[in-house]
Design a protein that fits this description.
The complex is a heterodimer of chains A (272) and B (289). Chain A is mainly α and 272 residues long. Helix content of chain A is 77%, strand content 0%. Chain A has 14 helices and no strands. Classes of the chains: A mainly alpha (272), B mainly alpha (289).
Chain lengths: 272, 289
């Protein structure tokens, strides 16, 4: 892997300089501006804003529904990856190609489609209302919308790793008397876990920040079904820039800490 | 004898169990696929066509929808080429050289993916809005960025920064530097080396990244929504137009415009599939050599 610095290949200064200037102008300086704006507040003022009941309710809802969606994706994503890699069956190519639909489809389109599907008189919502519960305009609806928009993450991270595990390893374990579940638990799981966690973390991070697909299905009731990004939007509409900025900083910090924890967990798994 | 038949019988049973499990898994994958991916598609089309083709086309060719389509295309036309050039430059310095802080740079390139789109919009409002850092300076000169087209382009640029770089970095790292070095030693200058050696090698990865970047630029909602100001016919992109129609309870029109976006998304998936297949073929050819 160690590659010497190649004096023959030109363009190091040019490309690195361009990359840094572009990133700074577009991403780093604007993001820094948000922190500078928040830094004008004292700790007490910042704390009063972010510990307001409405903010805490939105925080819990955003992270909770994103977690549920990531877990659902962890299960159905692994199922889809498994079936796509291991079996040939009618429609396999179509499913494989369509997995990426949530990334290609504008989130607003996904939002209104899922709302129409899950409202009490929608195609799927009517079954739920017969059973006596609601999907749209509840946290469950938010989780389902997030599951849709983050569906490709787990599939696409697990799929290549699964394809690289030689079948012989499992066969050997089976020949040595391992039951299918034991093979899964002791052979496949350790190999898949790092990739699975990556997919999980990506889906989770995207779910926390997601806006377009959620606002239609959420109902957006303060304290009940109001997600954090929407609360930022509400504050901006009231010209409360300080409030919006504080919530933005809170959101970035909490996501960053959670991603860091997942990263640490991943390292512990990879180095037994 | 009997132990042999018993063994083969149990092997048969295991195989049957295997086949049963296999079919069960395939059926559940199909169910998940139909429930999570096909049904939403069906809903978009059926809602759009509820009042017939006439209403459907009327919603698409209406002036506000056309203006929204033009703005969406403008945002794509500006942000995709800029991020393409950035992606190539970033992948070049990351994959062809060793330097300190490289992994930090890669993390920074990916940063926009882990920032909520609403925050992406917010930061530009803080910089260029009326109360923002440059607000006074801009208003003295009568330049409007936020709640105008430049803001929409900036927000779209931000959320699509990583796409091309992300596709190219692993690809170019795998390819190494030998071919470029050979070209240089044979007397090619920098640009000749780039156009005749690097570009053909990374072509399909490049297309793949551009396709993903285009999809996101076309469909971005949260970031654009913050900086747009929602002025019909002026600062509305197609996804925002869908939202306005939907909130006005004009559902048929909303789903009609949505199905236009759906058609674009399916076209993008086809392009992606095609570039991915070419990329895979290229890789397997390289592996054979």
């Amino acid at each position: 892997m160690s590659r010497r610095i190649s004096p023959v290949i030109p363009g190091f200064g040019l490309t690195l300089g361009y990359t840094l200037v572009y990133l700074s102008l577009l991403v780093l300086i604007p993001l820094g501006a948000m922190f500078v704006h928040a830094a004008q507040l004292s700790w007490g003022e910042f704390w009063t804003i972010v510990s307001a009941p409405r903010v805490l309710a939105a925080l819990k809802l955003s992270f909770g529904t994103a977690l549920v969606a990531a877990v659902i994706n962890g299960i159905i994503g692994t199922l889809l990856a498994w079936v796509l890699v291991r079996y040939t069956f009618p429609g396999r190519k179509i499913i494989d190609a369509m997995i990426d639909l949530p990334f290609a489809l504008p989130t607003a389109v996904a939002g209104i489609a899922l709302t129409a599907l899950y409202t009490p008189n929608g195609l799927l919502g009517q079954f739920a209302s017969e059973l006596g519960f609601k999907i749209a305009f509840t946290p469950l609806g938010i989780s389902l919308a997030l599951t849709f928009v983050t569906l490709p993450f787990v599939v696409r991270t697990v799929q290549p790793v699964l394809a690289d595990i030689p079948r012989e390893v499992e066969e050997a374990a089976a020949c040595l008397g391992a039951k299918p579940l034991q093979v899964f638990r002791h052979v496949l799981l350790p190999a898949l876990l790092p990739a699975w966690l990556t997919g999980f973390a990506l889906a989770f991070a995207r779910g926390v920040g997601e806006y377009g697909s959620v606002i239609f299905i959420a109902g957006n009731m303060p304290m009940k079904t109001e997600i954090l990004p929407l609360l930022i939007m509400v504050k901006l509409d009231q010209y409360d820039y300080t409030g919006a900025t504080s919530i933005g900083v809170l959101m970035l910090v909490v996501s960053f800490v959670l991603l860091l924890l997942i990263n640490l967990l991943q390292r512990r798994i990879e180095t037994p | 004898m009997s132990s042999v038949t018993a063994a083969s019988a149990s092997a048969n049973a295991a195989r049957r169990g295997h086949a049963l499990g296999r079919n069960l898994l395939i059926v559940s994958a199909w169910l998940v696929f139909a429930l999570f991916l096909l049904l939403p598609l069906y809903v978009v089309l059926s809602e759009a066509l509820k009042m017939g083709l006439g209403t459907f086309f009327a919603a698409i060719v209406e002036p506000d929808a056309i203006a929204a389509l033009q703005l969406t295309l403008l945002a794509v036309a500006i942000s995709v080429p800029l991020n393409l050039v950035f992606g190539v430059a970033a992948a070049w310095c990351v994959s062809k050289y060793e330097f300190r802080g490289k992994s930090l740079l890669v993390t920074l390139i990916d940063l926009p993916f882990s920032v909520s789109p609403v925050i992406a919009g917010l930061i530009y409002v803080l910089l260029f809005g009326a109360q923002g850092f440059f607000g006074e300076w801009l208003s003295e000169r009568d330049i409007q960025i936020v709640f105008a087209v430049p803001g929409i382009v900036l927000a779209t640029l931000f959320v699509t920064v990583p796409f091309v770089a992300r596709e190219l970095i692993p690809l170019m790292q795998e390819q190494g530097t030998q071919e470029e070095e050979a070209a240089r030693l044979l007397g090619a200058n920098g640009w000749q080396m780039f156009w005749h050696v690097t570009v053909p090698n990374i072509k399909w990865g490049l297309i793949y990244g551009v396709v993903l970047c285009t999809a996101r630029a076309m469909g971005e909602f949260g970031a654009v929504s913050v900086v747009s100001g929602h002025i019909r016919g002026v600062t509305n992109t197609l996804p925002l137009h869908v939202e306005i129609l939907y909130n006005e309870y004009n559902h048929v029109a909303a789903f009609s415009v949505a199905s236009l976006l759906l058609a674009l998304a399916l076209f993008i998936l086809l392009l992606k599939q095609w570039s991915e297949a070419r990329l895979a073929r290229l890789k397997s050819n390289a592996a054979e050599e």
